[in-house]
């Protein structure tokens, strides 16, 4: 394929404002593109206007190398952008648009790599499978659905095309979103003893949680420190009324040394202890629960990706862990164990930013990396 065709596919994907939805439009573009190269792609519906995409190429059923990316993007405030965010704009080597880095350039590159393998009638001792997902930004819904349907059970390796600055990530932190609601009793502020101040009780909880976390300073040599951040806090609607409702939300970034199970037990115990008081009525909801992932740093998939990427890019790649989460937290729940890496063309720090961009050069290089990795990984697996 020539560069104009490669840019057109990315442009078409960026043109769909798939902000927490509308992934079906993206999937249909990819399905049509793959069909034009003799590849049948299937859509797996998640919800109205939301569909995952599955496609494969290869001569044998196994082994299977998975290529995965998500088709949703985060919102874009047009006032913060120098160009319209849902149109691909080229400025020098920069391809600007919402989702260029996170993650439509990676998705397009993986689809193009599969198409180029098909165009060349490449002989593979196995198959490459695309697993393009919905809802990664808000809950990894698509990856969860595809895993539950068994599409990851026969994988021998998985490459996720999140923006990795063309480095290789083999581990990522887990993530927990939670909500704590405090229920009290309304009264006039001149007679506070007749009410129960939900805000006061929520502050008591916040302080108890912070104190409990003081004894947990665990740190991963790969993923760094455990972090917990309370990010929203709401109570009351009138200054002279004791509030009967208050709530906070928080996010914890977990590591194997202090994982999701441990943190949920800690915060649950804090709520339960405080609820022993008759004046306390706290409720805890875990909204999002994704485990940390640590794959094999010395796996053949890592070594082959590094070797190929260094040959193509001329860059000395780092093999490191990352602080964010990816769809890997769902795919690791498959029935079989397989190495997972993140390798993508976007710059990590560009994710979710105004005037988000990906390097045109990196975009084209990533296509070559994915194509050559598919051949080397599958052929080596059968040696």
Automatic annotation (TrEMBL):
Pfam families: M20_dimer, Peptidase_M20
Gene3D superfamilies, per the entry: 3.30.70.360, Zn peptidases (3.40.630.10)
Domain Peptidase M20 dimerisation: 170-276
Pathway of action: Amino-acid biosynthesis; L-lysine biosynthesis via DAP pathway; LL-2,6-diaminopimelate from (S)-tetrahydrodipicolinate (succinylase route): step 3/3
PROSITE patterns associated with the record: ARGE_DAPE_CPG2_1
EC number: 3.5.1.18
UniProt KW keywords: Amino-acid biosynthesis, Cobalt, Diaminopimelate biosynthesis, Hydrolase, Lysine biosynthesis, Metal-binding, Zinc
Required co-factors: Zn(2+); Co(2+)
CDD domains named among the record's database cross-references: M20_ArgE_DapE-like (cd08659)
Hydrolase keyword on record: yes
Similarity section: Belongs to the peptidase M20A family.
UniProt name for this protein: Probable succinyl-diaminopimelate desuccinylase
Organism, as annotated: Furfurilactobacillus milii
């Amino acid at each position: 394929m020539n560069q104009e065709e490669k840019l057109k596919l990315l442009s078409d994907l960026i043109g769909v404002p798939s902000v927490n939805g509308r992934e079906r439009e993206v999937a249909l573009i990819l399905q049509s593109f793959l069909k034009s190269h003799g590849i049948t792609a299937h859509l797996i519906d998640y919800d109205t206007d939301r569909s995952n995409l599955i496609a494969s190429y290869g001569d044998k059923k196994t082994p299977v190398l998975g290529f995965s990316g998500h088709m949703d993007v985060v919102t874009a405030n047009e006032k913060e952008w120098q160009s319209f965010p849902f149109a691909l704009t080229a400025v020098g080597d920069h391809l600007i648009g919402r989702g260029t880095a996170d993650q439509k350039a990676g998705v397009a590159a993986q689809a193009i790599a599969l198409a180029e393998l098909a165009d060349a009638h490449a002989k593979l001792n196995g198959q490459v499978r695309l697993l393009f997902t919905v809802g990664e930004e808000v809950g990894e819904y698509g990856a969860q659905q595809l895993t539950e349907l068994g599409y990851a059970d026969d994988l021998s390796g998985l490459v996720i095309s999140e923006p990795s600055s063309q480095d290789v990530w083999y581990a990522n932190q887990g993530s927990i979103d939670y909500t704590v609601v405090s229920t009290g009793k309304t009264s006039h502020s001149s007679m506070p003893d007749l009410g129960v101040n939900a805000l006061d009780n929520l502050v008591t909880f916040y302080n108890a949680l912070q104190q409990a976390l003081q004894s947990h300073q665990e740190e991963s040599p790969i993923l760094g420190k455990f972090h917990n951040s309370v990010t929203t806090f709401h109570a009351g609607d009138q200054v002279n009324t004791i509030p009967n409702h208050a709530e906070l939300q928080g996010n914890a970034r977990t590591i194997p040394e202090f994982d999701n199970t441990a943190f949920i037990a800690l915060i649950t115990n804090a709520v339960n202890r405080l609820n022993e008081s008759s004046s306390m009525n706290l409720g805890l909801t875990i909204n999002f629960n994704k485990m940390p992932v640590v794959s094999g740093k010395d796996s053949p998939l890592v070594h082959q990706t590094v070797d190929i990427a260094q040959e193509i890019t001329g860059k000395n790649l780092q093999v490191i862990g990352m602080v964010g989460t990816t769809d890997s937290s769902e795919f690791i729940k498959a029935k079989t164990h397989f190495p997972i890496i993140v390798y993508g063309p976007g710059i990590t720090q560009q994710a979710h930013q105004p005037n988000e961009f990906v390097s045109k050069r990196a975009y084209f290089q990533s296509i070559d990396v994915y194509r050559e990795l598919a051949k080397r990984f599958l052929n080596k697996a059968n040696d």
